[in-house]
Design a protein that fits this description.
Strand 7 (110-122) and strand 8 form a beta hairpin. The mean pLDDT is 92. The protein contains 6 helices and 8 strands. The protein is globular. It has 2 domains: 7-137, Electron Transport, Fmn-binding Protein, Chain A (Pnp Oxidase, Chain A); 147-210, Methane Monooxygenase Hydroxylase, Chain G, domain 1 (Up-down Bundle). Helices cover 38% and strands 27% of the residues. Bound molecules: flavin mononucleotide. Residues 18, 31, 33-36, 47-50, 53-55, 76, 80, 153, 156-157, 160 line the site of flavin mononucleotide (FMN).
Length: 216
């Protein structure tokens, strides 16, 4: 067991942190998706996946996962809004974890290997409790903060929620306006960057939906 703790990774009680949960499906094919992670006691971790998500299905069958710690917007983007083209790119990002039957993302800053202890179903979202099996830090290089990081990740959350609220026009408009707000910020602090490109793609996805096309 690692000498580092959840608090060393910045976790505090009763606060939602974002990370990427990676799992295998029943055929041992890797999957990854951003999820909010919480701890109430600094020992167990909790996530609330939609029961329609692949992550939820994989947790039901495999009973373990890796929580990949990262603040890289590109990783959030590629794992949240997966489409057919991305699958090839993403499959190269995985390697097997050490102590649980789950994949981990090679480019994460730290890994928390976890085992499911309980799954509660509540309407459209489940509550999954994990025991921590091991914590493995990888990178310690400090990263400079750019406001676009935060704005892009917030926008990706809103875009994935648009997928969930497809039938609720008012909610879609509300979420679209938030994405547009963050787009303005990203254009200002990171024009012509990978971040502004992700924002363009986010807005295009939303427009495609409005034109009744499929959102990936
Ligand atoms: C930062 C961030 C946090 C998210 N948190 C959750 C969450 O807590 N629960 C959830 O079901 N979806 C969450 N999502 C959306 C899922 O990542 C998204 O729907 C994804 O496509 C699910 O993939 P899967 O079907 O492979 O599990 C989040 C997205 C982002 C960008």
């Amino acid at each position: 067991m690692s000498k580092i703790s959840l608090s060393d990774l910045g976790f505090i009680k009763n606060c939602i942190f974002e990370a990427i949960v990676s799992t295998y499906n029943i055929k041992n094919l890797p999957n990854a998706a951003p999820m909010g992670i919480k701890t109430n006691d600094m020992r167990k971790l909790i996530i609330k996946p939609y029961i329609t998500s692949q992550t939820y299905r994989n947790l039901l069958s495999q009973k373990c996962a890796v929580i990949n710690i990262t603040s890289d917007p590109l990783i959030y983007y590629k794992t949240a809004l997966k489409n057919i083209d991305d699958c090839d790119v993403i499959s190269d990002w995985f390697e097997k974890a050490d102590q649980v039957n789950a994949p981990k993302l090679k480019n994460a800053d730290a890994y928390i290997e976890v085992r499911v202890t309980k799954i509660e179903n509540k309407k459209d979202r489940a509550k999954v409790l994990f025991d921590v099996v091991d914590i493995i830090p990888v990178k310690i290089t400090p990263k400079a903060y750019c406001r676009a990081n935060f704005a892009v990740i917030e926008s990706i959350i809103h875009v994935t929620r648009i997928k969930v609220f497809l039938k609720n026009r008012r909610k879609i408009e509300e979420l679209t306006n938030l994405v547009k707000y963050y787009d303005t910020l990203v254009k200002r602090v990171a024009p012509h960057s990978i971040y502004s490109k992700i924002m363009e793609e986010n807005l295009k996805r939303i427009e495609d939906w409005k034109a009744n096309k499929r959102i990936n």
